[in-house]
Write a structure and sequence with these properties.
The complex is a heterodimer of chains A (about 475) and B (about 190). By secondary structure, chain A is mainly alpha-helical. Chain A has a domain at about 1-160. Chain A is built from 17 helices and no strands. Chain B is of the alpha+beta class and about 190 residues long. Chain B has 2 domains: about 1-35; about 45-175, Cytochrome c-like domain (Cytochrome Bc1 Complex, Chain D, domain 2). Chain B contains 5 helices and 4 strands. A two-stranded antiparallel sheet of chain B has the order 1-2. In chain B, strands 3-4 form a two-stranded antiparallel ribbon. In chain B, helix 2 (about 80-95) crosses helix 5 (about 160-170) and helix 4 crosses helix 5. The radius of gyration of chain B is 21 Å and the shape is elongated. The relative contact order of chain B is 0.15. The model of chain B has no long low-confidence stretch (mean pLDDT about 95). Classes of the chains: A mainly alpha (about 475), B alpha+beta (about 190). The interface between A and B is large, with 88 and 84 residues. The complex binds protoporphyrin IX containing FE (2 copies) and fe (ii) ion. The site of one protoporphyrin IX containing FE has 23 residues of chain A, from helix 7, helix 11 and helix 13. One protoporphyrin IX containing FE binds next to helix 7, helix 11 and helix 13 of chain A.
């Protein structure tokens, strides 16, 4: 195993630990909705939410770094350039995350001055981390970028996938600079903030996970490089062709001119197309192999990624992306429903698929199977479906009653809190969240033990495949 | 066939990316102009010296904020520079306390508490006539009370901080948001 791959295992481990913390903070955040005085003035809702969504971003970034460090040596046929620096940066990353989490938990917020921005909490959604930590993350990302570019330069093998990844890293890092400013004008603040949020998750991250899943498919199913690369280019063309101007679906109501209603609505309505393309690609590839991959969990998580991306991001996003609907669905639990489903489908499932490939690789197994992964697969996906279902019902109720009929006032908000569908949605989200947590526990049990068990059990699918 | 050659698709990817990015940059320049205070959609900060209302504009087919005559905030007439400093402070209050991880601003944020886009114009606060409204809201921010299902915590705002946040909300209520939130205040209007 390359040093880079050992680093990958470390990154994936850290990602899974943060995934666990994210689930804990998610369940915590959901309790405030059903228990009105829960931890009031001690540990307020916003602190729980900040911890939930920041661990969300960080564990995915760590998962992506892990995936790239895992595949990169195989792709370039050599150890990753600058690996020693990368190993140091891993610990820098972990230390920064731990300190920021401790400050969020124990200090929570500061006075309205620059000190708070630099050392406590910047209070901008998803990028609340204080500026010193954002600089740290930027440094980690720059070293990561250097690793990828330098390895490609030193290697004689420069594949199309690798080149796409390199070009994607530029906007990925540049957009993160958006995590620093504190503009007075809320319209301008949000205008730029969406470049970070939307152009990350609906453009640069989509390309990044596209590269990662391309490598995963080649390793998992032995799909030919020519096919995978052509698909990747089609995906880039369509994702960026629709997603860049699709940014306009966040510019309907923040003070920006009215032309965004047409432009944003039109282009974002096309955004599901590439996601549908990926489903077709995944079905085609696994169909030609009759679903027979040695690494069963990785195959199922790869398929879950393709479907989840299309349904969670594409279908759930499409539902509320036209301004005529969004005028009412905007900023409701409906948004939260889509946010959960899309992140889970597009990114979390992909990271878990790579995790299983790395587990197999590090335990020198071609095949992986068993019973535990099926339980965790079922519980996690069922938990997620239950949560987003509850949130969708609550969100539609909110869109119709608080927004459309109630006119979004404080009074309309209060009335909503007592509406049965909304209340039931909040309980449903919490209940299925607990189910999801059980799935997480099962996943951890499985990745720690799978492939270490009796050889016979693990080799079963190979026999099946041979039969 | 040419479609079997990845290079064909690569050319398509590069072309569509460059073209769409160029269009985005042009639109961004235009939009930034409109959302600069004093631009077509965002008022100057000294709008806090005026009365603000929100009503249906039948020509545009949507709700639009209207700026009326003088209605001072905290009994003070702010120059544009003073107003800018005050509202800048308000933004720092909003960021430092992470209001956005409970509330939404222009519909962006968290869904635990009411949308604050037009909070200044909320029927609850409209009960307070003239300059009393600012004081009532500042008092609430310093010592929140419960009206609904769950209450807002005490975030230890000083009087200055609370007033700056109120000024922020007043300025924000005058931003033209293409009709969001639709029908604000009408359902409860007396
Ligand atoms: C992987 C892809 C995607 C991810 C991870 C994702 C995630 C999210 C998240 C987290 C939000 C909430 C943002 C916030 O206010 O904090 C959001 C909002 C939104 N997304 Fe997506 N999304 C994806 C793709 C899409 C697609 C393809 C569409 C459209 C077809 C879409 C349409 C929307 C819309 C309209 C909103 C705004 C909701 C509102 O007005 O409150 N998304 N998305
Ligand atoms: C144990 C399961 C989970 C529970 C109970 C939970 C609960 C919550 C709650 C209560 C919020 C705050 C929403 C608000 O502002 O009202 C939230 C936000 C969010 N969560 Fe989760 N969550 C869970 C798992 C996840 C997972 C697995 C993901 C993604 C992979 C995720 C992604 C998000 C995102 C993107 C937001 C921000 C959404 C927005 O503000 O529009 N959560 N979650
Ligand atoms: Fe978006």
């Amino acid at each position: 195993m390359y040093r880079s791959q050992r680093l990958a295992l470390r990154y994936l481990t850290a990602a899974m630990v943060l995934f666990g913390l994210m689930v804990v903070f998610g369940i915590l955040a959901s309790i405030y909705y059903v228990h009105p005085t829960f931890l009031l003035n001690t540990f307020n809702f916003n602190t729980a939410k900040i911890l939930h969504i920041n661990t969300l971003i960080i564990w995915h970034l760590m998962g992506f770094f892990g995936a790239v460090y895992w595949f990169l040596p195989g792709e370039t046929g050599r150890e990753v350039e600058g690996i020693a620096l990368a190993e140091i940066m891993f610990w820098v990353f972990c230390a920064a995350v731990a300190i920021v989490a401790a400050v969020f938990i124990f200090v929570q917020y500061g006075a309205s001055d620059e000190f708070s921005m630099w050392f406590i909490n910047q209070g901008r959604k998803y990028v609340e981390a204080p500026r010193w930590a954002a600089i740290g993350i930027l440094a980690v990302a720059l070293v990561f970028g250097y690793n990828v570019v330098a390895s490609a330069v030193k290697s004689t093998r420069r594949s199309g996938i690798l080149m796409v990844l390199i070009f994607d890293l530029i906007p990925l890092v540049v957009l993160y600079l958006d995590a620093f400013p504190a503009m007075t004008d809320m319209s301008k603040d949000l205008f730029w903030w969406w470049w970070l949020v939307h152009l990350w998750v609906e453009a640069t991250w989509e390309i990044l996970i596209g590269c990662i899943m391309a490598w995963a498919l080649m390793e998992l199913l032995g799909t030919s490089r020519r096919v995978v690369e052509s698909w990747l280019y089609v995906e880039v063309a369509l994702v960026l062709g629709t997603g860049i101007l699709g940014l306009g679906h966040h510019y309907f109501w923040i003070g920006t001119p009215g032309y965004w209603l047409g432009i944003g609505g039109f282009f974002s309505a096309l955004e599901p197309l590439p996601l549908l393309g990926m489903v077709i690609h995944a079905i085609y590839d696994s169909g030609t192999r009759h679903l027979r991959a040695g690494n069963r969990p990785a195959l199922y998580w790869t398929l879950a990624e393709a479907f989840g991306n299309f349904i969670g991001a594409g279908v759930w996003g499409f539902m509320m992306t036209l301004p005529q609907i969004n005028l009412y669905s905007h900023g409701t639990q409906w948004t939260a429903s889509h946010g959960h489903f899309a992140f889970w489908g597009a990114y979390s499932c992909g990271v878990i698929a790579v995790l299983y490939l790395a587990v197999a690789g590090s335990r020198e197994r071609k095949a992986l199977d068993g019973r535990a992964w099926k339980w965790s697969f079922a519980l996690l996906n069922l938990g997620m479906l239950g949560m987003v279902g509850g949130l969708l019902v609550a969100g539609m109720d909110q869109a119709f009653f608080e927004r459309a009929l109630g006119g979004s006032t404080w009074g309309a908000f209060i009335a909503l809190q007592h509406r049965p569908w909304y209340v039931e949605g909040m309980w449903t989200r919490m209940g299925f969240g607990v189910l999801f947590a059980a799935g997480y526990a099962m996943l951890m049990y499985d990745v720690l033990t799978i492939g270490k068990r009796r050889r016979g059990e693990a080799e079963e699918p190979l026999k099946e495949a041979a039969a | 066939m040419y479609t079997r050659d990845p290079a064909f698709w690569r050319a398509g990817a590069i072309a569509s990316t460059l073209f769409m990015s160029a269009v985005l940059v042009i639109l961004a320049v235009n939009s930034l102009d409109a959302i600069t205070p004093g631009g077509s959609h965002v008022p100057l900060y000294d709008v806090i010296n005026n009365q603000i209302s929100y009503s249906y504009d039948s020509a545009r087919g949507e709700y639009v904020p209207k700026i009326g005559g003088q209605e001072l905030l905290f009994n003070h007439e702010y120059s544009e520079t003073e107003a800018k400093a005050l509202i800048g402070k308000g933004k720092m209050v909003i960021q430092s306390r992470a209001c956005m991880d409970c509330h939404t601003f222009f519909g962006n944020g968290a869904y635990y508490a009411p949308d604050l886009t037009r909070a200044w114009l909320d029927p609850v606060w409209a009960e307070y006539p003239g300059t009393k409204r600012g004081d009532a809201m500042a008092a609430f921010l310093m010592h929140p009370f419960r009206l609904g299902y769950h209450e807002m915590p005490n975030l230890h705002l000083s009087r200055d901080e609370a007033q700056a946040a109120v000024a922020y909300l007043k300025w924000m209520s005058a931003v033209d948001t293409n009709g969001f939130p639709n029908g604000f205040g009408v359902a409860q209007a007396k």
